[in-house]
């Protein structure tokens, strides 16, 4: 199973090893309209409504205070470790009630162009702060950025683009299969990042040393299941345009006239 760490507020997800609870809040109706985006959010978790209101007043006056308040006051592990940052969140990773808040039109419509985060020094007028009460306590929540979620690439499109060298160069190609699988049936141009060796390559990937976060990225495995998980992970850590290759290399072998290796 993957070893990457998620904040303690995320909804359990069967495909990942880190399971925990999620935020809960009153449901609004507009979140379903924004299921094709991911958002980046941060929060401050405190014990009382009075303390939450005091924090809210401070960040509304001076947004730059958010990180320090999260670091010194928040009960969530994300406070001390990441100044309250929960990272990129996809629809469904939180419970529906909280999804309805962070993916609501009210919040998303106030953010800059998709993919452009609000700089920490930006005035509070450019941000949207929310108060939420949950079983964990009281939260001051801010959504800081929004972008298109990871999607799928169908095989017909991949065959056409991959077999055209000029089109292939426009894509960042990542193969998450095991090394033995690549040796049996491998494709040129792919960066090999075996899913089972996540802990070995994650630091270099997350630092941006070996990848381009902004280049269109296609993730491949044998049939498209492992790559779907990893595409979600890449999206969460900040890749702006990630696509999972549906059907994987096995489907490519069936569709392509240039490659026929199957296993």
TrEMBL record:
Keywords: Isomerase, Rotamase
Domain PpiC: 36-145
Pfam family, one: Rotamase
Domain called Rhodanese: residue spans: 167-261
Record has Isomerase as a keyword: yes
Catalytic activity, as annotated: [protein]-peptidylproline (omega=180) = [protein]-peptidylproline (omega=0)
Ubl conjugation is among the record's keywords: no
Enzyme class, broadest EC rank: isomerase
Enzyme Commission number(s): 5.2.1.8
GO MF term set: peptidyl-prolyl cis-trans isomerase activity
PANTHER family assigned: PEPTIDYL-PROLYL CIS-TRANS ISOMERASE, RHODANESE-LIKE_PPIC DOMAIN-CONTAINING PROTEIN 12, CHLOROPLASTIC
Protein name: Peptidyl-prolyl cis-trans isomerase
